[in-house]
Write a structure and sequence with these properties.
rod-shaped, 117 residues, mainly alpha
């Protein structure tokens, strides 16, 4: 790479020279090329790579978030199902206890086997 002649003059001097040359329409060929073009190209490449990495990371994060949402929904459905089963079990236990109490009362009032009434 050749040395940059622009580093030896100030920005104000450079803009003044460009204004004078532009007013006389005598801009040199090198003025058509940005002095920082190589650096800008490097930064553009870096930005492109960072953008691609960001997009990949965002897609992965979105997929993980979707999976977590599905798992949360499934866990909630399982909690609801468990609560239903526990309620049904408690109802059956209550029904069994009531039946046991009823049967005990019925058999307590029944005559003993072998005795005649």
């Amino acid at each position: 790479m050749r040395p940059c002649i622009l580093r030896s003059i100030t920005y104000q001097d450079f803009t003044l020279v460009l204004e004078v040359l532009a007013s006389t329409r005598q801009l040199p060929d090198w003025s058509q090329r940005c002095a920082w073009r190589d650096e800008l190209d490097i930064r553009a490449g870096q930005l492109e790579r960072i953008s691609l990495q960001f997009d990949t990371t965002k897609r992965s994060l979105d997929a993980a978030n979707e999976e977590l949402q599905w798992q949360a929904t499934s866990a909630e459905a399982l909690r609801i199902r468990l609560a239903d089963v526990l309620r049904a079990t408690a109802a059956e236990v209550g029904h069994g206890n009531a039946l046991h109490t009823h049967c005990t009362a019925v058999f307590a009032g029944a005559p003993k086997s072998g005795s005649l009434v």
